[in-house]
């Protein structure tokens, strides 16, 4: 399994590095990248989630155990970060960045990995993971921003942030279509499938273009704190929850991989919008993207001996 993970990581590394090179060399206009991120976030990735959940064959997938494992482990780490905040000695905006770095994950990398490991079943598993974690993480992060960010959100503002999140809306929409057995109209289904397929390479290129390794050197402490939570506390909490709920096989592997994914570049956008420490967030994202290439295989190696992956 570790070899399969490394093989699945290879195209992710290549596309991310290509995005970094294209941005550094100015091959595309600087204005392209924010627009590409916007297209992916509001159109392409929601299409992937909606299509994946609406068409997934989930009869043999332990949906309840998988979703509950992810939600419980995410909540456990979120509580741990909040409890440890006095030890971090950070101001409010900086704490929001550490919090996001501890619980937020990169959807593009997760879906690409799951699809590379398990094919169509992996896409279904990834869609369920996203349906469980995306609302959970966004609710937690918006609440933390409301408490510690410089932009004070009213309850109405918090509700609006959650209700208009395209990833939350598309995930819930796909679950609704799946639950009602409606299906996607024949003419619309291939269009959504094509849009979803485009989200992965474009998203990984944007991930690479957004990396800024220079910022990571200035905040060694917060970067270390967020990465410790992400790559040690989160997988440990995930395995404990999975063992309690009887989760195993490809579902456990996918859950574990999703919980050791690096922070998404969208965390930087949220930090700018809601009064977080955006430069620190960029540093955490860059550092975790590199660390994840080592952390994901190591987590599987450390746990494969005693956990039925």
TrEMBL record:
Cell membrane is among the record's keywords: yes
UniProt superkingdom: Bacteria
Subcellular location: Cell membrane
Topology class, membrane: Multi-pass membrane protein
Keywords: Cell membrane, Membrane, Transmembrane, Transmembrane helix, Transport
Family, similarity comment: Belongs to the auxin efflux carrier (TC 2.A.69) family.
PANTHER family for the chain: AUXIN EFFLUX CARRIER FAMILY PROTEIN
Name of the protein in question: Auxin Efflux Carrier
Organism: Methylobacterium oryzae CBMB20
Lineage, broadest ranks: Bacteria, Pseudomonadati, Pseudomonadota, Alphaproteobacteria, Hyphomicrobiales
């Amino acid at each position: 399994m570790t070899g399969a993970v490394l093989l699945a990581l290879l195209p992710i590394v290549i596309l991310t590095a290509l995005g970094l090179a294209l941005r550094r060399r100015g091959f595309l206009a600087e204005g392209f990248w924010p627009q590409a991120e916007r297209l992916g976030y509001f159109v392409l990735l929601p299409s992937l989630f909606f299509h994946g959940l609406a068409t997934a064959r989930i009869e043999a997938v332990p949906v309840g155990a998988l979703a509950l494992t992810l939600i419980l482990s995410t909540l456990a780490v979120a509580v741990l970060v909040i409890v440890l905040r006095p030890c971090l000695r950070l101001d409010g905006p900086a704490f929001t960045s550490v919090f996001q770095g501890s619980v937020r994950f990169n959807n593009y990398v997760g879906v690409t990995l799951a699809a590379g490991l398990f094919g169509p079943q992996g896409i279904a598993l990834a869609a369920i993971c996203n349906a469980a974690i995306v609302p959970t993480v966004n609710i937690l992060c918006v609440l933390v921003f409301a408490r510690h960010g410089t932009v004070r959100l009213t309850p109405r503002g918090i509700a609006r942030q959650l209700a208009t999140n395209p990833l939350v809306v598309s995930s819930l929409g796909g679950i609704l279509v799946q639950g009602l057995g409606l299906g996607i109209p024949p003419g619309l289904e291939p269009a959504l499938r094509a849009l979803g397929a485009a989200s992965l390479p474009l998203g990984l290129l944007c991930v690479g273009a957004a990396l800024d390794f220079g910022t990571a050197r200035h905040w060694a402490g917060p970067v270390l704190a967020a990465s410790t939570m992400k790559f040690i506390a989160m997988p440990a909490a995930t395995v404990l929850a999975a063992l309690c709920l009887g989760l195993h096989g490809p579902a456990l592997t996918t859950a574990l991989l999703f919980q050791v994914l690096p922070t998404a570049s969208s965390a930087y956008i949220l930090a700018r919008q809601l009064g977080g420490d955006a430069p620190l967030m960029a540093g955490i994202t860059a550092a975790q993207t590199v660390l994840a290439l080592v952390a994901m295989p190591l987590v599987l190696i450390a746990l494969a001996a005693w956990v039925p992956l």
